[in-house]
Amino acid sequence: TGPSRYGLTPTQPCIQSGVFKRGMRIVFRFEVLDTSTGKRVTDRDGATLKVVMPHGEEVTARWAIRGSVAAMPDSAWMWDSSWDISPDYPLGSFDYRIIVTTKDGRTTTFTPPIQKATTADSRIRIID
């Protein structure tokens, strides 16, 4: 989570959560491995990554260090993207996907696995 354009600032930014209120910012952080080589895919590889929201909006991911270099010089580099939940966004489960396109034109889509039980659902949820 992080401060959003809708004025919501979490009391504890950058906490891992699967439940978000309308008006909050969702931050996606992830790594991508090329399974044919076993190597991490970075911006140096010419790849483009997009996070696709359930309603079709696409947000481009960037290769970045987690936190600031000055504050955390040994922090991990990873892909990240963020999206601000509009105040009128529908409540409920939030199914997103990540599309990876490599410099040579290969494309793959990652959809987070869903674990459902009668008492739990692993998907991100939007609540009021």
Protein traits:
mainly beta; single chain; 128 residues
Descriptive report:
- This protein has no helices and twelve strands.
- It is mainly beta.
- The strands form four sheets. Strands 6-5-10-11 form a four-stranded antiparallel sheet, with no helix packed on it. A three-stranded mixed sheet has the order 1-12-9, with no helix packed on it.
- A hairpin with a 4-residue loop joins strand 3 and strand 4.
- It is globular.
Question: What separation lies between the terminal Cα atoms?
Answer: 16 Å
Residues in β-strands, percent: 35-45%
From the helix content, strand content and strand pairing, which structural class follows?
mainly beta
* Sheet with most strands: strand arrangement: 6-5-10-11
The biggest sheet amounts to: 4 strands, antiparallel
Helix and strand arrangement:
Elements: E1 19-21, E2 25-30, E3 33-34, E4 39-40, E5 48-52, E6 58-60, E7 62-65, E8 77-84, E9 92-94, E10 97-101, E11 107-110, E12 124-127
Parallel strand pairs: 1-12
Antiparallel strand pairs: 2-8, 3-4, 5-6, 5-10, 7-8, 9-12, 10-11
